[in-house]
Amino acid sequence: MPLSIVILAAGQGTRMKSSRPKLIHRLAGKPLLQHAVDASRAVEPEQIIVVVGHGAEQVRNALQGQDLHFVEQREQLGTGHAVQQCLGAISAGNDVLVLVGDVPLIRAETLARMVEQGKEAAVCVLSFVPESAFGYGRIVRDEHRNVIAIVEQKDTDDDQAGIGECNSGIMLIKGDRLQGLLSRLDNDNAQGEYYLTDVVGLAVDSGDRVNAVVCDQASEVIGVNDQQQLAVVEKLYRARQAEALMSRGVKLFDPARIDIRGEIDAGQDVEIDVNCVFEGMVTLGNNVRIGANCVIRNTSIADHSVIQPMTWIEEAVIGRGVSIGPFARIRAGSRLDDSVKIGNFVETKQSRIGKGSKVNHLSYIGDTEMGADVNIGAGTITCNYDGVNKFRTVIEDGVFIGSDTQLVAPVRVERNATIGAGSTITKNAPADKLTISRAKQVTIEAWSKPVKKDT
Ligand code: UD1
Ligand code: MG
222 alpha carbon to ligand 2 midpoint, in Å? Predict the structure, then answer.
């Protein structure tokens, strides 16, 4: 049977102590709820339905444009009630896998295991054994170890309270049983809620089989209810990402000190020093080395390039054998061709820097088209902005720009031109010539040092 996934996300999350709904708080750079959505995609459901309630509008906005079906649960009368609201939206006959929006570390492999094991049962629950069971629904088994019920914390008797196996909140219900089971839920319990968990007892009562998949890593089903848990989950997520990188052969100087808020695609023999933050999609070629304390966002870096410590790079395309930093800022739209060298305190933005060119110290290169084998002296500024409009600077192949030069755009420096140090260039500089704009150096012979006056 095709699969529908229902993600419960209507709760308020008061313990976050935030004006924003819990599920849009960020974990590893994306909304909490997005993690459950992404894990869902991997089991290829026919549809994903998200139940929203508190902050519905904000939750919808945080996940827009992703082919999700939103169902609103205006009053939160319980997890069973939440799934009941989806009956109209679920394709008839589909099996339904219910996930909780605030359990972000659930892995696609685990969901796939549930789908597999759920085949022989009316209901399949994902259970786990936490360090402390308090607060969770308990999995009650009979003497043959068959699952017969889930009892919520507030409804447990002393024996049940002693059970260590708990409900993760994730559950698979067979399509042909869904309607019948949901229609029989009531709210006759300690919390006066329609519990989804009651479908287990109801299924067993009607002679159906209930399976439990035991999740071997309790960390996978940790729920996020407050900032402390969010931090714990962030740390676990980080560890998982670091683990995945190392198993693909990346050398991490300290796996506890890397933040991956997105995805890294890394080649062979990549080395990453401590305290680097990666955001969005980052591609690292073979033999790329990243120094300590770098922030790299939505960027690709080709083979053999070295990023020195304390460098910031975003939305950039970096060629092979490039060296950047330390202390460089490569901003959006920067395209650095092979063998480029960018040194300390250099900022680039919306600029192409041609093969083998060097900008070694203290410069701003913005809105610039730079050819190959150019040498930019220390303290060079492309003046791209007149306070209202932006203009482009063109620096052709083989140009040498002397230190402390301002290139006032729009302006072009032609092939192999040399610009004398300290120049302010406002007109095009011709090829192969020395262009210089500073005043001639003079020495005033009649000058003498001022002397302090008596007062
Ligand atoms: C639920 C389970 C419990 C399990 C625990 C795991 C039930 C009755 N209990 O308890 O067995 O051990 O999760 O963390 O299912 N929600 C809605 N609408 C509602 C109520 C809840 O969308 O009307 C959503 C919440 O936003 C949340 C999820 O459902 O994402 C779980 O709700 P919550 O109130 O946290 O249930 P628990 O008491 O933790
Ligand atoms: Mg909960």
Answer: 10
- Entry pTM: 0.85
CATH code assigned at 291: 2.160.10.10
pLDDT digits (tens, 9 = 90+) for 102-132: 999 999 999 999 999 988 899 999 999 999 9
- Nearest atom in ligand 1 to 194's CA: 8
C-alpha 237 to ligand 1 mean position (Å): 22
List the domain range (segments joined by +) for residue 217: 3-221
- Ligand 1: residues with CB < 6 A are 8-11, 51, 53, 73, 76-79, 81-82, 100-102, 136-137, 150, 152, 166-169, 195-197, 223
> Is the same domain home to 141 and 53?
yes
361 is catalytic: yes
Cβ atoms within 10 Å, residue 439:
7
Ligand nearest to the CA of 59: 1
Is position 447 within any domain?
A: no
> pLDDT tens for residues 211-232?
999 999 999 999 898 999 999 9
Whether residue 199 is found in the same domain as residue 267: no
